[in-house]
Amino acid sequence: MSGLPDFKSVVKDVSAQMRSLRESQPELMTAFSQLAAAGTRDGALSKKTRELVALGIAVASRCDDCIGFHVQALVRLGTTRAELEDVLGTAVYMGGGPSMMYATHALAAFDTFSV
């Protein structure tokens, strides 16, 4: 699909910038890393379920960088396309037409990270 981000590059580039922030803002980045770990750990909900929720929020919030990171994690966790499409349906329900457009971005990211 043309016009869509190259999600491997997006994740790589954002990761590089976050490394830079780790040097200049170590307390902030440590706290953010701890927040991310706590927000995606296994608990009453599995790590995969929590990542699916995060993806739905990323789509509804229209954040391509977030979509890239969460889809990459979901592929690593063995998420199926059907599971991804279900959460995208809920994100579109909650976010309307703009979320539909970003749902297509999530599908493109899934295809990218699934190969």
Automatic annotation (TrEMBL):
Protein's recorded name: Carboxymuconolactone decarboxylase-like domain-containing protein
Residue ranges annotated as transmembrane are none
Signal peptide segment? none
InterPro entries in UniProt? AhpD-like (IPR029032), AhpD_core (IPR004675), CMD-like (IPR003779)
Q: Which residues form the Carboxymuconolactone decarboxylase-like domain?
A: 26-108
Source species, please?
Answer: Cupriavidus laharis
